[in-house]
Structure formats: structure tokens, C-alpha cells
Amino acid sequence: MRFINNRNKEPDELSNYRKTPGVTYDDLGGRIKAIIRGSLLEEQGYICAYCMGRINSDTCTIEHYISQNKHKASPYLEEEHKKQSLLYSNMSGVCVNDSTHCDKHRGNTPLEILDPHSPACEDLITYDLGGSIIPMGHDIDKVKNDIQTLGLDCEKLKNRRKATWEEVLGRFKQEHEKKEWSKELFLEYANKYRNKQKTRKGLKFHAYCNFIVWCFEHYANNYKNL
After folding, report:
1. Is 135 in a helix, a strand, or coil?
2. Which of 13, 71, 161, 187 is the most exposed place for a label (fewest CB within 10 A)?
3. How many structural domains comprise the chain?
4. pTM for this prediction
5. Is residue 147 part of a domain?
């Protein structure tokens, strides 16, 4: 998970739609939803807000951090849930999958602390080289619960993260002989993957970018023992 700052970038089409009294998200037309998805994809660098897997216009769906439907633990009344569902700041672009992870796995369960719209989300998660996600922070039980709610440590995602790192590391080894390896070189690559990269179709984050950053930083701190 990486921080997404989309608090002030709401598409005009959604703002104008919300001005009509009584409108709901369910009545939002396909054209405006497509505009919202496109905006979210661009802001997120074409990665899922939860698992950081690659998404595009065909494999992205709109997720609401505060769910559209009222649940038992919700502090909001049902009417407020309807209002929240039309706020761009409550929306994220997430992957379409087989319900093993992310919003399909979450369902209507509220998240306790992991919020891709909060900068703190990146400090609440770390990894190991096997692709596993490890909770961190003072509220570690809440982080652990959210990881389970989103299925972020399922075998499918662990294997994808690990395979992606092995592919990136393979390219790194082709470009740099072992005698060239240094802490500075690994940190240079960590910084590279921390940012969006220019592609023929715009600026994009690499899939599972924060995991790749963690791996390069791990190698930077341990390169003499590799």
C-alpha cells in the first residue's frame, strides 16, 4: 500500500453531479465513472490502492474506503454513508480479482487503520524477501486485522511480489556486475522505484513498487553479505 493524495483533485463532472439534490452513487452514469477511474489511475500511477498490483481502465474498479453500505461498526448514519459514497476523497482505484484480496475480499468490513489516503499507511507495513507483509506500529493488532481483511498477505500476492522482485533484481544484475554493487547504488535504485516512471502511456509506478523499494533498501544495508 502506498499513500494516495487525491483530496483536492476531484473531477468537475463529479462535483457538478453532486450538486443535484437527492443523487446517489448508484445513479452515477458510466461516463462519469469512467472519468473518475481515469483520474484515479493517473493519480495512483496505475497501481491498485491496496495491493499495488498493475491496473488499467479495464482492470480497475472504484473502491470506497468508507463503504457505500452501512455496517454495524459504522459511526455514520445511513444517509451519511450515501453522502460519503459521492466524495472523491473517499474513492480509490483498486484491482478486479477473484475475491482473494483487496476490496473483493474486504466486502463491507470496515478498515481500522490502513488508509491509502493517509501518509501513515506506508509506515504501518514492512516486508520480508519472501514477499510477506509484516505489520508495524503501536496499533499493530489493528494493522494485522486490516491486512487480513484485505487479504494482502495471501499466497497469490506474496508470490507476485516475490516474482516481481526477482524480475527487477535480474535486470539489475544484468546492468551491474557484483563488483559494482554498493550501498549507494542500491539506494539509487530504491529511490528510482519510489517514484513514477515515464512510459509510452504516461507516468506509472512499477507494480508492487513499495516492496521493490524495501528490497533495494534491504540490499543496501546487507550488500556486503550477499
Report:
1. strand
2. 71
3. 1
4. 0.91
5. yes
